[in-house]
Specification:
Length: about 240
Amino acid sequence: MKNEIFDIIELRPATKHYYGDSLKMPEILLEDGLLVKVGTLDIPIGHSRYGGPIADLPKDFEYPEDLRFAAQLDLEQIVPHDKSGLLPKTGQLFFFADIMEDKGLVVYRDIEKSELERVVKEHEDNFFEGVLIKSAFPATEKLSSRYRQPEDEYEEEDANEDGVLWDYFEGSETSKIFGIFTHCQAQEQEILDIVNSDKVVLLQIGENGFNDEGVFSVLIDKNDLKNLNFDNCEFHWGQS
């Protein structure tokens, strides 16, 4: 079994999720008080976040009409935990995506938060709900954790030479930068091919309080990241 260990930057969400002030939510979704109208929260300009109706964008930036705002990363919050040194040291990363088509856009701007302006785009489809990224911290993950023990004699017949099975859903609970690509519809060899390539997980948002079901991932070639070229990113949505 492979025992590689990968350095990652793990991401944790704030408690409350938010949605557009003009939207009507079913009462059952509001009962626990964890989903609130965005107008009830004080969201600092440029704070790292995932999804939702508000994005803090450069003033000269044209919002892509065929994509939804997916995330923005305040690199001053993230970079202190980057052991690889691959991420740009300052500025903001902006992510837009269409998860039905696995396409999107990543934009990097070395810009001060004071130079951003708030843009509101309320909608009811993918990424309608937002949540702040509360914290980022260094962590590690092991490739061996992607394998599990057989649960019955039938699974034992399918186990590999080490007596274990590939776990399609392992890793879905983690939100992170870098590390092992996660996609529950991908086969073991597909994941291993990416792990052993020059592709880097630029962003993964999983089921640890961000998404209920599903993992949003963005991949970038390592050399592109070093050169701050975000034109060739790959976008993936793995529905669990």
